[in-house]
Amino acid sequence: MPVLQAGPDAEWLCTNAGGSFAMGTIDRRPRRKYHSLLTVREPGIGGPLNIAAELEEWFEVGGETFALHSYDWGNAVEPNGVQYLVEFDPQPRWTYRFAGLDVIRELWLEDGTDAVWLRYSIEGLTEPVQLRLRPLIRCRPIHKLTFANPFLNGEVDVDDRSFLQATLRPYKDVPPLVVSLHGAQGTFGRDGHWYEGVHYEWENTRGYDDAEDLFTPGEFCITLDGDTSLSMRLGTTPTESPEPQVLVSLSREGRSFLEELDDAADAYLVKLHGNRTGVIAGFPWFGEWSRDSLISLPGLCLARDKVDDALAILESLAERLEGGLIPNIPKSGDVPANKNAIDASLLFIRATALTSRRTRSRRVVALQEACLDLIECIIAGADARVHLDRQGFLFVDQGPWALTWMDAIVDQRPVTPRWGYAVDLNALWLSSLITAGRWAKKLRPKLGKTLEETAKKLSDHFEEKFWLQDLGFLTDTHDGRNPDRKLRPNQLWALVLPGVPLDKSYKRRALHAVRTKLLTPVGLRTLSPDDPDYRPVYEGGQADRDLAYHQGTVWPWLLGLYADAVRAIDGPKSVNAELLPVLASLCAHFRTEGCIGQIGEVFDGDPPHRPGGAPAQAWSVAEVLRIAKTAVP
Q1: What is the Cα–Cα distance from 314 to 294, expressed in whole angstroms?
Q2: pTM of this prediction?
């Protein structure tokens, strides 16, 4: 893929099976504090650790020095290695050309070990060339910055008995960093010092601190006498073999968008400590989020025939309840849980139902029992902020919380207050009662009768509670007296979930309203542009972005619900006619902007729909993949 197909600031992502990752930009100028050669998902203490920042390459050819990496110092970019870049492939692979040399730099992560490999293939030598490779480290929590300090241990243990290996133990309780040279002879020179004031442009744009210091322990020095290849490995444990790992490279030429999406999905399905299967919600700053996992599960697992992974994800979440319910973010190690997600428990029931249809495994029965437990806990008021009214509806009390996916809070107040009766919660609740009621007839007959009675009451009043006859769509929320009358995509749940009683003509009108005002070439807006609260762009500091997050910002994952609604109401052929142009737009995004080979979290509500948020998001990839599996001819 020629570099000119994407801008130099387009990102790349490389992961391993444990959710650790490397990430950066094509021009290798770090623009986020998250850009790194190695970020370890589960370091054994706290949350993820950003371990290694960069491996500098300095070539000395014919008395001249050429550097391939880049730094932004706030007032200057120096060095600026992109000037030698002639080609980039999102594997990732860089091809540089200078002083008669062609240098190919390839990067990949080991599976099963937190280590990154870099391989250099160098051709065109007509005289000896000196190569210096210098690692820069951070060894700090993923969301923090580090600065020059006297606490970092800069000592390096060098072992060159069978191959050259340098080991650093920079901080107590932080994994060591082991850097080794493979396929070439060299020396390591200790000269530990700090690079101060590396600037991160996008952190500044996002309203965060934007500069930090990086530590280098020294450099590897290699004399190249002819065309060759060599490898460097940076990891938290030593390699077991002096032989360099070989990258299994798959050509991307001629691959379809569907095949590329399938590859992209692999980044999010991970095996974590304790042989636990999980979903990373997004890169670089998300971890395991229950809601994201459960919305992603049909696309990441079921659409790809990974039913065992679906079962394992559900079992893992069922083992980590908080107060009897599925938390928003499960407890992980010494990181406490976040409980703000009443919808997560309902999404768990939906995901269990979808998975149950794909397998006869006995494991399903235990998950169905877990679903019945969740329903009993909701009825009993396990979340004191949510209760059932006399008609069986779920009602969210007013307060400084946001319990659905529209969860942005600014100044201790939800930006999109969805107190009272939320249409998606109650559609999910009604469908859960009906689905779980069938399971309960066999597993817990007495509970089954209760669920059947509650579902009947709710069904009798659902349409009158949410349908807006004069506007032709379902209200997003209802405070008990008045509907809010805002056009949002959450009503799609009521159009697609089994058991939700809506007149077919009402469904058609609601779908038309969503299509007319919310559908864009890259996803669905979260609010109609006609609404006075609509925000057309997602930009600025944390508060500005949160104010726009669900007030018009476009989310690709909503396309999955939209496609389901089109299929159910207008028929399968309509899905192709309407969604293929959208898939084409997302394919262009996937290949040329944001994080190459991934789909971002959000886009601006207004054209040209610039991408924003996390550049690689699980439910974006999962739901677009699920659509593509059925919509692509």
Answers
A1: 8
A2: 0.96
